[in-house]
Structures are given as C-alpha cells and as structure tokens.
Amino acid sequence: MIVETYQAAKSASLALRRACPTDAGAITILNRVLAIDADGVNLDDQTLRAGVLAVLHNPALGRYWLACGPEKAVIGQLELKTLFDEWTNQYYGWIDNVAVARPFRQQGIAARLVERAKQHARHRGLTMLRLYVAGDNDAAERLYVREGFKPKGRLLEYRL
Description:
This protein is an alpha+beta fold.
C-alpha cells in the first residue's frame, strides 16, 4: 500500500528494510509509476508483478530495499543487483529501479536508500556501484552526484 498523504510522512519516522515477497504489490506499483515517469512506458501489470516476484524469490537476480513510512507503508524502493566485471575480475553493484512515491519526493528518501545500498555493497565486498539516469531526470542526477557518483560514458540499448 502506498500512502497518499504528504503530512503523514512528515510526522512519521522512516524505516529502511529489505523487501520480501509480500511486498510485490507495492513494488509493482512503484515500478509501474517509474516506467511511466522515466520512459513514458505503460507496463503490463501481470508481467511486471511476475518479474518483481522472480527477483524477490531469487536474491541472485537482485535485492530490493524499501523505505517505509506511516503505518509501515512502502513509499520508496531501490533494487541492487550484483554483476561481474571480467576486466577487473571483481563484482560490482548495479543500482536499478529507484523510485519514491510522488507525495514523498524531495525529502531525502532516495538518498537514504542509496546510502543503504552503499552499506550493503561494502559489506558484500563489491568494488563499485553503477547506475543509469534517464536523460531528462536532472533531479536524480543531482542526487547521485551529491552521493559521490561520477558521470561516466553513455548507455546505448538494443532491444531484441
């Protein structure tokens, strides 16, 4: 459940936790909004939910971290995937699907999720974190630069 009131979030404490399969509904909603906001894509709910559940049931695919606000409602998320770089023979983290429910944006929630991902990555011995920011999402890019990320290269995609 995503809480819709801004005032409730201001007065409640924020808790970060790892997601579990019972969170699939909230994660599906946040990912659906993220796809519309970032890419203008309207995703199929059934396919999206199946993908979210695949990740939640298999940590090798990724791990979701959640920000919970009033009454433990999910108001933000971040997915951290572990990838391998054969050039350096090391594992690194890929941050994906960062989303905060609209009424709760610009309150430092995404920054808290990124900090949690950094802590988890250090604990797991990862050597770096990488991510992609949609071309027109200046607020997200500013957030990541404030968090110590350095712009590097460009992402190209080919869909099959």
